[in-house]
Structure formats: structure tokens, C-alpha cells
């Protein structure tokens, strides 16, 4: 039976808490210490986050509302309809704030020599250049569509910018839609000797709409995008007749293209008749329509720094930072053997993922290697890890890969990788019905002197080589016998679909993770004012954990939390959560690591984990939390947390209303992320370039060639 803990007055709505987090992301664009182009990236992240929020979270609320579910949110007492009534106005206020910030940034960037132009701002020579560019590079790629009695309203897709127009011909009104080709760059750089001037492809296409439909009189032109609900469950009955899970996920992706629209974004407010036409055909109301002064596609912000002069780049971007090679390893010797001697903690993005990749690469080519087992949730678009796993399989190793095809918005990427891994000879499994495998675990087994030797990696974040450069995560590498025993059992259980396995050291959801966390909290509650709970997370929504934190506060336990995103528990409520402090850090890197610490000094129990304190993590996913007992590794984590709690630059403290404010301390400024960049030492040796790159390129080239031959029916020679 669902508890309604909102009645106790120390919780808040999850969705509104998330909107406050996204506001903190946007506030980075107002921070004087952030370079201009980095501020513009914050505007992009705000918009991208919001679009995903409306697809996933608001999409699920729409489904509940349409199903006439009377279920209320147990942390706020709001029905799905009431939550949406609160979400849409709050989101529109955020977009209005974003538009104002964007316009200010646009002017500031112009003063630095980066001129983002409207079509009307271009001179004659530039207009001549643009018309020629349009005719040569854009027009041949277009697929214009007219809507009239013989041509239906198009099925508008996510992530596509459309140019639409209200037109007339012989007194009759028609409408048109032209999708901006995704193969085109988002901006067109104009020829200029001294300045960096550019226009947006979407603006040039909107300008040219009259030339596309030259038999019509264009009355009104708009740019627009839609966000459709992504709330399609592969485990629904509608897909039960599909036995191949990969084909089932491909069907899910197709179904998403037809889901209801939760957000329509237009470049300006349309006329009443045009608005009615769009809203009627998309089956939405004015509430779901947002106007936006920012470009529909803002991914261009990540390419500008590579196009401008070095002098300008240095003014408008952060100083370059390359993740350091961990100083713990000697890269001239076997990494596997070094792990047999000591535990290692890699701290992304301050340190590189390359040591882990090299460990897998080394195992792939070592005759002593018996097997490599790994769980995969998200991967880079071009993943060296996959190349190394394929290489290992080609070399006769047993390679077992549990790849989660339900990783939202990475489904197609994972489907493609699963096919590549299978083709190379890896054993691929897809997880469980109604449970996502979100854990990040890897196990390498070798036979040395007739005995099995192991190296295991357990991480807080994905094996994604790209996000490891911008997400803060921890990766723990060990050969400790107790942990290895559990990791071996974990992979054996995953292989036979067993979710209720027993483990001695690891906490594994959905079985032991939540119950153990609650038990460890109870132990601190018994200590009263001597009790300590310290955690770093992305979100807190699990009602049982929230209740226990409330009880801990009542008992006098000192509860210190770093929660980047959603926090459904309110701190500082008199007589309820007085002893709870919550801070959030939003900065250059995305805070992503999960750390749980119960107790202090010699009685302390520390874990790193893939799981947030969210019900979906604790009850509906396969997650792993790993105990940390190595003194040196524990000290590294404590040092990291101490810096985070001292942060008075990027940290914000949560009030008892759910809002956040700057931390006003009289101390010298502390930016924990900047401090970590400076703190960690650089390795004295380096990984040979050939080991990291050249062999991968050679393998990938050969693999792609063989795959092409296979698909075309040719034999490999």
C-alpha cells in the first residue's frame, strides 16, 4: 500500500524539484566566472534537459492522466493532472528566463568577435554567398511537403527542426512543412577576413521558403520542433508476441515516433488561425505550446570553439583540460599484475579511463586470459571498449556481455553494438523483463601457474569513453578475494536470469541493496547524536529511504547529503529534518558519482554504487554497491567529499522550501572541481600510443571489412 508521506510536511514533488535543478543549470549562464561560450553551452543543456524531461517524465504523467488513474504523488499529494498544471507554467517561466539570457550572451559574444546573425543582418555580399550556398548545398537535400485535401498532416519527429508556413494560392489556404536535413551543419560560416560571422541553417531555410513554394503567397513562416512522449515499455503486452528482444526494442523505437506530443516549440507566436491549425492537428492545447527565441537546434555551440581563432577561443572557453593518467600505475608493466598487488581508484574526468581500457586490451591479447565479463548500459558512439572485447573474442577468449537494450535514448546504439559483439563471437545477453541492468561491473579472469587470478572493476558511471571526460565518476579496480567471489556469483546469476542471488560483500538490487541501506541507517539511528550519514547522489525519491532519513534526523544523527538533481526530502524542517543538510553542485563537469558512508572513524562503512536513492534504482533495476575497505582508496574518497562540502563557489544549499541559495561563507573561494583538477598527480609513465590507438584502428578496419563482406554475401579471405 502506498504511503502518503507528504502529509508529514517534509517532502516535495519530484518533477518540480527537477525543474529547480534545471534552473541551476541555466544559472551557470549567469555566473561571471564562466566563459561566454561555456555559458552558451549551459543554455543548450537547459533546453536539451527540458526536452528530455517532457518526453520522459511529462510523457508518463500524460499516460496516467489519459488512463484516468487517480493515483496521487505520495510526496506532494498532487494528481497527474495537477502536476502537469504546475509543470507547464514553471517550465515556461524557465524558457522566458533562458531566452533573455541567450540574447544577452549573443550580444556579449558579438563583442568578442563571434557574430551570430539574423538573415536581415547580412550584407549584400553575404546574401549572395548564402543564396549560392543554399542552391548548391541545401536545396538538393530537401523534401518539402504541402498539406491540403490530398496531402495529410505529417508525422513530425523528435529532434527534427521543421520550417512551416501558412500559404495561399488562388484564395485557398495551404500549409507546408520542410524538415531541416540532419546531415547539414547547424551553422554556415560567412566569408570574412577578420570576424567570425555565421547564420543558422534553419534561418536560411526559413528565409528561402518562398522560393521553394514559388506558386504560393507565403503569409507566415515558423520554425518548430516537437517533443513526443518516450514512455513506451518493451515489457508491455503489446510486444509480448515478439520473442527476439532486439527486434522488440526496434519495434519500441518505431512506436515512439507516433506517441502523443507533450511539447511544441515555435520560434514566435503564430497568428490565431495558424495556431489553431497546429494545435488541432497535433491534438494539444496552448498550454503545450512554447515560444523560443533561441535556435531550434543548439548543438552548434560545441563546434564553434574549433572554428574561431585561438585568441578568441581562449577568451570564451575554459582552459583546456586533459584527464590525467592515474599515477598509481606503471604503464611499462602489466596493469593486471599491479592490480593483484593493490586496489586502484580511477576518478573521472580528473583521471582518464585509458587505464581501464588498457587493462581490457591487455587481457584481450594475453594467452593466459580465460574470460572477460561485463555489463554495459551506455557506450560512446565510437567505443574502443567494444573493439577490445571483439578482439578478445577473436583471440579465443570467452567474452560475456550483458548489454541493456532498454537504456533510454541509447537503445539504437546498444542494438547496433550488440550485433557487432555477436558477430565477433561474444556471448551477448539483454537483461531481464521489467528490470534494467544498470550496474557497471567488469571481471577479467586469467589462469596463472594453474590458478585462476582475477581483476574486477566496479564503477559509479557508464563505460562511456566520451562522458568519462565530463561526468564525475569513480571506478574501483580490485582483486580482493571477497569482492571477486561476489562478482563471479553476480555474473553467474545474470547468465541464468537469477535476480535473487546471495552476496556476502556486494549490495545488489533489487534484493539486498535497499534493505542493507535501511539497516545501516538504523544502526546510525541507534547511536543518536553520535550517528553520521554522509551520501553523494544524483537524486533522492525513494519514500522508504526518505522516511528513514527523517527518523535519523529526529534521533539527532548528522545527515550530510550532496544531491545534484532531484531531492524529494526537504532539509531544515523544524522538528522533522533539522539535522539534514543538502547541497547541490553544478559546474563545469556533471556530478554523477554515488557514494554512501554510514558511521565515522573505525566504525565507518563506505560504499560506491551505480544506484541513486530512487525507487526505480532500489526496486526495479539491477544495481551494485561495492564496499571500500582499502585505506588509501577510502582516504581519496574522503578528500574528494571534503572538498565538495567546502565548495562555496559552485555549491548551492537547499532551503526548507526546496529552493536553493548560494553558500555564504567567509572562507576563501573553493571550487571543488577546479581543486580536483589541480590536486591529482600525473603518471610518470605513459601508455604506448600503439597500444591505445593503432591496434584498435587495424582491428576496426578489418572488422568492418569482414562485416561488409558478410552482409554482401562475399566470403572472407
- Biggest beta-sheet profile: 10 strands, mixed
How many distinct helices? 20
- The share of residues in helices is 25-40%
Strand content: 15-25%
List keywords for this structure.
717 residues; alpha/beta; eight-stranded mixed beta sheet
Could you characterize the architecture of this molecule?
This protein has 717 residues and is α/β, with parallel strands linked by helices. Helices cover 38% and strands 21% of the residues. It is built from 20 helices and 27 strands. The strands form four sheets. Strands 14, 18, 19, 20, 21, 23, 24, 25, 26 and 27 form a ten-stranded mixed β-sheet that branches. Strand 19, helix 16 and strand 20 form a beta-alpha-beta unit. The C terminus is likely disordered.
Summary, kept brief:
With 717 residues, this protein is of the alpha/beta class. The protein is built from 20 helices and 27 strands.
Secondary structure: elements and pairs:
Blueprint: H1 14-27, H2 36-66, H3 80-111, E1 114-116, H4 124-138, E2 145-147, E3 162-169, E4 172-179, E5 187-189, E6 196-200, H5 201-207, H6 209-212, E7 217-228, H7 245-256, E8 261-266, H8 272-282, E9 289-291, H9 310-316, H10 335-341, E10 344-348, H11 354-365, E11 369-376, H12 384-394, E12 398-403, H13 411-423, E13 427-429, E14 436-437, E15 441-448, E16 451-459, E17 471-478, H14 481-495, E18 507-509, H15 513-527, E19 532-537, H16 543-554, E20 558-563, E21 580-585, E22 590-591, E23 594-598, E24 605-609, H17 615-619, E25 621-627, H18 631-646, E26 651-654, E27 660-662, H19 672-679, H20 689-712
Parallel strand pairs: 1-6, 8-9, 11-12, 12-13, 14-25, 17-22, 19-20, 20-21
Antiparallel strand pairs: 2-4, 3-4, 3-7, 5-6, 7-8, 10-17, 11-15, 15-16, 16-17, 18-25, 19-23, 21-26, 23-24, 24-25, 26-27
